[in-house]
């Protein structure tokens, strides 16, 4: 990759990252991240790590179905084995604790814990009970996502998120989980990234269940947000001590030129990626510009839905990865105009930490009732190799440092940000990209399931130790 990025990497030779020169990760002395109460953790998701898809009564999910269709996932990969975490969870928790990580964000596989009639599956529930109890024993703060995309296939067979009934089934599931797990969960997130579920799942078909229709996307989004809104009071009633929130992915859109048309295109990009989710949650209404972009796609909204959806949150989880440079498409919308000569990751995503800072400070202005924020995912994929038992993930170290600096800047600008979770604890099944894209701070050899701590994780551990020592 001959671009600006090489200049950054050249300054971070392997010798540097082995610690012989200045530490390339540790935040600057004046960073707010030295505050002991800023939670630093790592995140995973059930389908991406668990494997054991046919064990202990787990039912099929839409991702089992989708990944079995040739051409949907790179190299025909599926989550059937993944990181085999279902069997290796004890060692994985030890690894998490040994890195000194203070928080762990995981998700529950809905198809593992109840059947089509809503009858609880004890074996599935026991897995999560054991896992959460162990995390509690280790003093690790737990963030549990109820829905990180693995919808039971039997619900998809009845329309999935296009069927309003799925929102009520989700509330039943939230009821079961919060009754069973109350006391072991510090924070519940109802959904992970409804944008991806609605748009990639029902709007362009890149994700399960693979449908492609804008009208479907807006209706699926409405039912997802309704599911969230119905679940929040249930979680509050069953587990009052925990925090309740939702996780949204956000995208930065920048205009390719100063022209009014391109400025408008960048605005519409952010409406489609951010306001589509955040406006209903925080303002109780959909952004009307969305329907300028996608005319005639207004979802069916029943009386009271928007009040249900906009119930107050204890926290908002934010996932941030990259920015998109856009221009007007000459009609109602925008088109991507990839920038040349910028640093990119293995995903091809541009590394753009300022986008995180600018979006967060922008949200503070736009949403007067913005809840406290946790960065629930941030990280990058690289083609990491194990050499002599080590992984020198130089670009990731630099990426994390720069994004944590952006978080610090947003905090200093007045945004209430309480924590940050690395995506991901370990390499895993990266959805439509299968196992080729490695996002972990721990390397996984899928042929042996051997975990190797990458250099990035060692440096995070070192920082956390130093922070603890200072406290
Ligand atoms: C997010 C997902 C997460 C992971 C990262 C790279 O959109 O929430 O599961 O795949 O992207």
Structure in a nutshell:
With 471 residues, the protein is of the alpha/beta class. It has helices at 4-10, 14-17, 46-49, 62-67, 85-98, 110-113, 122-137, 153-156, 165-181, 194-203, 214-238, 260-283, 290-293, 305-309, 353-366, 394-412, 455-470, and strands at 39-43, 103-107, 141-147, 187-192, 243-255, 315-328, 334-336, 373-378, 417-423, 442-445, 450-453. The model is unreliable at 1-21 (pLDDT under 50).
What's the total number of strands?
A: 11
Tally of discrete structural domains: 1
| Low-pLDDT residue spans | 1-21
Strand content: 15-25%
The dominant shape is globular
At the first level of CATH, what is the class? Alpha Beta
CATH architecture: Alpha-Beta Barrel
Strand neighbour order, sheet with most strands = 1-2-3-4-5-6-8-9
User: Distance between termini?
Assistant: 42 Å
Structure, explained:
The longest helix is centred in the middle third of the chain and has 25 residues, at 214-238. Strands 1-2-3-4-5-6-8-9 form an 8-stranded parallel β-barrel, surrounded by 7 helices. It is built from 17 helices and 11 strands. Helix content is 41%, strand content 16%. The chain is globular and about 55 Å long. By secondary structure, the chain is α/β, with parallel strands linked by helices. α15 (353-366) packs parallel to α16 (394-412). It has one domain (2-470): Glycosidases (TIM Barrel), CATH 3.20.20. The chain has helices spanning 4-10, 14-17, 46-49, 62-67, 85-98, 110-113, 122-137, 153-156, 165-181, 194-203, 214-238, 260-283, 290-293, 305-309, 353-366, 394-412, 455-470; strands at 39-43, 103-107, 141-147, 187-192, 243-255, 315-328, 334-336, 373-378, 417-423, 442-445, 450-453. The chain starts with a helix and ends with a helix. Mean pLDDT is 95; it is low at 1-21. Beta-D-fucopyranose binds at residues 45, 48, 192-193, 196, 249, 319, 377, 423, 430-431, 439.
